[in-house]
Amino acid sequence: MEPATPMEISPRVLPPSDRWSPAPAVPAPVCRFENFLGAERAAALLEYAISRGEDFTAGTVLDPLTGQVSRKGRDSLVLPVTSRVFSAHLADCLPLVQEVLGHRGSLARSLTVLTAHGEGGHFGMHTDASRVPDVATALSAVYYLHRTPRGFGGGQLRLYDTVVDEGRARPGETYRTIEPEHDTIVFFPSGAFHEVVPSTCPSGRFSDHRFTLTTWISGGEPAAAPAARRSPVWQWLADAAEGTRPLHDAEEDHDGARPVALPPPGPGTRRGPSRT
Ligand SMILES: O=C(O)CCC(=O)C(=O)O
Ligand SMILES: [Fe+2]
């Protein structure tokens, strides 16, 4: 059969306009790994989280304007932790993650908490500006853990798009959904607006909660990644997140997490496909 000749769509059907809306909704860059720690380590970490059930406390949020710490918009349990092995594994993955996310600049330190979400657990739309010295250059990483079969419902992570409208960036209403699957991790810019939708936990047992090891990774100094070196998407995210930056420097993390230095990438460092 002869291929059809393309027909011009008449301007009577599709008239030109001088008022096109040039406001794209730009997805936040994200990098996801499956089997991040491997079955044995993931199972051990899950058992550890469950065994510390009594030590979790209610997670908090920080009001950027007043500096007030509260539980507004959040129902999560948190437990600050550190792990040299987890940090070293993160550090080995960062060169590849930075390539995928289009992140430039050095990353030097991280803060980590274990979290648990049960019946009604949620975390309203926010950026992670209160966790890092410079939200424009920091990365957030969320590693998920749960029992099999999964004892909770819901609890998806929504990563909101950024709308660029008349030269201004703002969080959009559209989003990508990340399923909190056991032994997976997602990395995304800390300035990206995100939300944990409500979870259910029919058994009510702590062991059936949705667990995470959540880490915020930042550069040594805000000046380490000057704005001029940022990719446009990172710049738009930074602009949209500006109003969420705390006005006052906090002495300590509002959930009690402590910064630790990231080790330099080791021999296990992952990189993208080589361009030879
Ligand atoms: O648990 C998640 O999926 C995300 C958690 C989060 O956004 C946070 O702790 O800041
Ligand atoms: Fe967050």
TrEMBL record:
Residues 99-219 form the Fe2OG dioxygenase domain. Residues 245-257 have a biased composition (Basic and acidic residues). InterPro entries: Oxoglu/Fe-dep_dioxygenase_dom, Pro_4_hyd_alph, Pro_4_hyd_alph_FE2OG_OXY. Keywords: Dioxygenase, Iron, Metal-binding, Oxidoreductase, Vitamin C. Residues 240-276 are annotated as: Disordered. Pfam families: 2OG-FeII_Oxy_3. This is Fe2OG dioxygenase domain-containing protein. It comes from Streptomyces nojiriensis.
